[in-house]
Amino acid sequence: MNEFRTKKAVSKETFVFLAILIATTVYFGTTMGFDVMFDVIIKTAHDLLLDTVFKIMAIAVLAGAFAALMTEFGVVSLINKVLSPIMRPLYNLPGAASLGIITTYLSDNPAIISLTKDKSFTKFFKEHEIPTLCNLGTAFGMGMVLSFYLFSLNADFLPAIIVGNLSALIGSIVSVKIMLHHTKKYYGVTKESERESSLSAEQLSKVREIRPGNTLERFLEAILDGGKNGVEMGLAIIPGVLVICTAVMMLTFGPQGANGEYIGAAYEGVGLFPQLASYIAPVLEFFFGFTSTEAVTLPITSLGAVGAAMGMVPRLLDGGLIASNDIAVFTAMGMCWSGYLSTHVGMMDALGVKRLANKAIISHTFGGLAAGISANYIYKLVVLVMG
Q1: Is 10 contained in some domain?
Q2: CB neighbours of 381 closer than 8 A, spacing ≥ 6?
């Protein structure tokens, strides 16, 4: 399938794009100062590269090695057999997909891509199901880190954290189901072809391929192969993280100077998202139960990087701007979204279906919203029941 099409050299969209680009540059430049704007862009991208991308790559290497061992010695096959009765009704995915949930929950979103590079893992899936793994894995990215971090701030948050984890599960189901609808259309799946691929996957699941050599040789080769896949995946996500996450950060945060002035530090911005949130505060209160308009910055920041959102929690707690209900909602949306705007494009590219990236993003947006709304009302119900 060709990735590029032809179009008139200079068209209407050329001038529309220029107008948007100039307007955006003028907005940021007049607010922050043009010198500060470019300084912040460079420093933010540099910081993301060192502190986010390389961290993700390290996680991906370790997760890739771990996943390769799991498939080499039949653990994935066992998980597939045990959990298929659960995963099919919930996600319409094979039981092996649960390994992706476990891997990303213990690490980060892109860890699931390392699994997709292993044929012993992907053999359980139909062709149109593989792209949905991007949404499935992202919904649980950094789940353990986020949960333990919030618990360390206050042990009383435990019920809210548990509700948040449950709600992230609900969000993941919504995201995957919507994405499956798009992938079926993209691959032209019919009921007959789906039935045939199911039979093929069932036959393949009865056996598994192993590497040549004795047990120790297979162990070492699996680690190296899996780690190599992690490196390739880490490199593939760099453009998405640096470009998209930088933009999200600059739209979320404001000046960091002691007196509210710009100092040209990484992650400074115009603070547009919190301003916009103030206009729809009643709507946010109804659906998500936010204690303050500032609380909306947590899920919004999670669009770019949930780690950055975690760093904002203590400051909001000290200012009395968030409460337990907000923690439940943030846990759900932070885990479910977990920086998907900064990783989804790269992850879909690594899966070889970059043209479906927009569908994946739209599907996951609804999934995160479902997670947040579920967390708000489930937690209120828990508080009501517990008295």
Answers
A1: no
A2: none
| Among the listed residues 1, 9, 105, 111, the one whose alpha carbon sits nearest the alpha carbon of residue 55 | 111
Q: Which pair of tokens denotes residue 224?
A: 């190296």
The pLDDT mean for the chain works out to: 85
Question: Among all chains, which residue has been given the structure tokens 């969209």?
Answer: 13
What's the domain count of the chain? 1
Written as one letter, the residue type at 20 is: I
Asked whether the beta carbons of 109 and 347 are under 8 A apart, the reply is yes
Quote the CA–CA distance of 213 and 385 in Å, as a whole number. 58
Q: What is the pLDDT of residue 2?
A: 47
Domain span holding position 269? 33-386
In a domain, 25, yes or no: no
- Tell how many helices (H) and how many strands (E) occur in the chain: 21, 0
pLDDT band for position 1 (cuts 50, 70, 90): very low
Average pLDDT over residues 36-61: 85
Is the Cβ–Cβ distance between 139 and 365 less than 8 Å?
no
CA distance linking residue 374 with residue 5, whole number of Å: 42
pLDDT digits (tens, 9 = 90+) for 248-283: 778 877 898 888 899 999 888 898 877 887 788 888
Q: How many CB atoms lie within 10 A of CB 257?
A: 12
d(CA 284, CA 350): 35
Q: Which H/E stretch holds residue 285?
A: helix 281-288
In a domain, 13, yes or no: no
Q: CB 103: neighbour CB atoms within 10 A?
A: 23
In a domain, 157, yes or no: yes
